[in-house]
Amino acid sequence: MNTVIGNRRTLAVGLLAVLLAAELVVGSVVARAIAGANSQPGPLSVAVVGDQYTAGIQNRLVWPTLMAQRTGWSVSNFALPDAGFVADGQGGHGFTYQVDRAQGARPRVVVIVGGVADTRYPDTGQIGAGAFNAINKIKIGGERAMVVGPTWFETPVPNKLERVSDAIRKVAEEEGVPYLDALNPPWLTRDQMRADLEGPNDQGQSVIADKVAAWLRSEVAR
């Protein structure tokens, strides 16, 4: 009788072990499947925050649209004229506001580009604080933050623009966010700007598209 009970116990333990092992195997397979689904290749989704260099001024196509066409990426453009980390654009539509809208598109990457309008503010501490707020809003939201500094169209670059670029770069580096300098040397030339010099013409938009796309490829591949 004891032998029978012992055999039954042994059988029960064996069956339990088999069931546990099967559960672990199934769990492992499911976990790998989920991980595989999340890492499957697909078009990079990018949301862009910026000023009139990105929003465009009577351009046929702006650089985010050109970048999407040339790369196959999904690119959403939330830029507004005269916006910046401190500059509020048209009625409070600065970069922090644009980040809120950009996150609604659920992108993988949010790229902040610009800062020309912030040259109106001599206090670079304000600009740094604005950069910190915008960058951390992206990080908290779970997107990857990337920053491109302001660009220009001639040398020497105005000192006030260099100061803005340096202030943004400092915060980006402290927060561990990639920063692309667009001033040394300036990406654009005078003939790639509108006649009023308020923003890039179509040729200038094309130049920016290629510059940003090349940088994003190198950073996202890391």
In short:
The chain has helices at residues 2-39, 52-55, 63-71, 95-103, 124-141, 159-174, 202-220; strands at 45-50, 74-77, 109-113, 144-148, 179-180. The protein is an alpha/beta fold and 222 residues long.
How does this model look, in words?
With 222 residues, the chain is an alpha/beta fold. Helix content is 51%, strand content 10%. The protein has a five-stranded parallel sheet, with helices on both faces.
Features:
222 residues, alpha/beta, Rossmann fold, 2 domains, 5-stranded parallel beta sheet, 7 helices, 51% helix, globular
How many individual β-strands? 5
Low-confidence spans: pLDDT under 50, at least 5 residues?
Answer: 1-8, 10-40
Strand order of the largest sheet: 2-1-3-4-5
Put simply, the count of helices is 7
Report how far apart the termini are. Answer: 67 Å
Order of helical and strand elements:
HEHHEHEHEHEH
User: Which CATH architecture of the largest domain is right?
Assistant: 3-Layer(aba) Sandwich
Structural class: alpha/beta
The coarse silhouette is: globular
Largest sheet: 5 strands, parallel
CATH C-level category of the largest domain: Alpha Beta
- Please identify which CATH superfamily of the largest domain we are dealing with: SGNH hydrolase
